[in-house]
Prior knowledge:
- The strands form 8 sheets. The chain has an 8-stranded mixed β-sheet with strand order 7-6-10-2-1-17-21-19. Strands 20-23-24-25-27-26 form a 6-stranded mixed β-sheet, sandwiched between helices.
- It is globular and about 95 Å long.
- A hairpin with a 2-residue loop joins β12 (194-197) and β13 (200-203).
- The protein is α+β, with helices and mostly antiparallel strands.
- 24% of the residues lie in helices and 30% in strands.
Amino acid sequence: MxxxxxxxxxxxxxxxxxxxxAQAPSSPGEPGGGTLSPFxxxxxxxxxxxxxxxxxxxxxxxxxxxxYRIQATLDPERHELRGRETIHYxxxxxxxxxxxxxxxxxxxxxxxxxxxxxxxxxxxxxxSTFDFSCKGFPGGLELDEVRVGLTEVTPxxxxxxxxxxxxxxxxPGALVDIxxxxxxxxxxxxxxxxxxxxxxxxxxxxxxxxxxxDDVRGWxxxxxxxxxxxxxxxxxxxxxxxxxxxxIVGATGTLVNPEQVLTAAQRARLARARSSREPVAIIxxxxxxxxxxxRPASTGSLTWRFTADSVRDFAFGAAPDFRWDASGYQGAMVxxxxxxxxxxxxxxxxxxxxGLQYYSEQWYPYPYPHMTSIxxxxxxxxxxxxxxxxxxxxxxxRQWVLAHELGHQWVPMIVGSNERLYPWMDEGFNTFIDLANxxxxxxxxxxxxxIEVHPLHLYAxxxxxxxxxxxxxxxxxxxxxxxxxxxKPALMMQTLRYEVLGKERFDxxxxxxxxxxxxxxxxxxxxxxxxxxxxxxxxxxxWRDWIYTTARLDQAVDSVATADGGQKVVLSNRGxxxxxxxxxxxxxxGSTERITLPVEMWNLGPRFAYRVRSAKPVRKVTVDPRxxxxxxxxxxxxxxx
Length: 641
């Protein structure tokens, strides 16, 4: 340490000459660059009666509604899922719609999908690999019937999207019923989000789904390629799933016929679990896989019926040999279903329950009747009320993936942002809230006491000049989605919370964002405006640096001088990112003082002269003494004699 300090002191003489003017990079759509003020407004759409200038839904805000009634049968012998559904679609927009757009996402496994044609390389997230393909599986969804009302129609299919031309345009306020019959073979590995493993099935994006028609872009029919997830309408689901009687099913929604599919002992255990903080074994290790002990019938088939409201999707998992633990939190059930080969999952119920409690108390109360986590071959995937999670090699990994997929219940299941365009608004926000939850769960351990600084430690490896990409890019354009979709947005939110707004101010604003946009479709502009409105701070400068550009921070101390009978510390912003500044003053008598300067210090340019209030001589100045900021050159952070 002493050798490094000596080098820094030698460098200070050269640095005292002062930096060149800091560059202020432009945002997309802005002219010019270099000399623009970092505090200039973002070029956002004007507020109106749909989306107000305060970042809230306006008096004329609308969004479409799609309700689903589905009957489906899973045939494990043929690995086939076939179904029939009716979509009740309500046009709440002011526009006449001559056609509707739907997603057929199982076509990602078909020969005409973009993913199959491009043979995209997998994405590597530290120790996990996400292959957003079907690994050569020759699949796809077969449509057997498509009707609009009573009229049979011929759809136009483009890979994972489908256009339905209506017999008559759908007027504002009108509704239509769309009936579809379909089938597909379940792949072993379906784009990293669903599939099967022996007798276990984890089923997502399995039925034709409505695309979102909104006031911002009209139809949002961006194809499903893999890296970009989902943007869906809210509605009600009534789903009946028929499987062999030996199977146990976990799914989105409330099970409305437990008397038909569960034994009396299981129903009694579930009733006890509802008020239990500790997990209750609904199906124990000794019982798992024994149909004569766990199923009301050991031959034939059973139909499980689930209903759910105010959700944007439906998924399920099924296996004949699940262990099943359950507990309760504030009226919601916490279910963990796992195979006997994963005994490590005995702690999973506690991990999920504590995460559910943390997110509910810290940000927004969990609104759904249950939360179900299913162990299997998927590295991690979320749907309303249900997640698919891997066995994981360690407690830390297991807790992280369980809590991360759980955290998606808040973003984007409750706050329905557009994942196809803005992963930082769901993956990033979720990673941010996960960090504090993991720190709480493992408090007192090396992992728990360091996990919150993990994104900052990743900065040097992932924010390489000339290679890093702005967060605003679509996920399918990102070369490092682990960074742009997850870790950098989490670092952004931590920096805003702890270094810019302060915890109390930030938390109030972020809670209001979740509450305001629950079950609605916010855009980035809505988020920016609401955070400004509630916090009382204009943050356009912050969002520009973190989201629209790859600005880099380099704060420096240039000199300490005596002037006008006092001492002045000259500070400079040598990089293109703008943030508040913290410094530590060390005086000749050995005492120290921490000074925090707000971001307005840079109002008049990239250099600021701070007048020292104390009469004691300053021996040393250290900028960012906690090393809490992503400063790219710490060699100019210390000045002293």
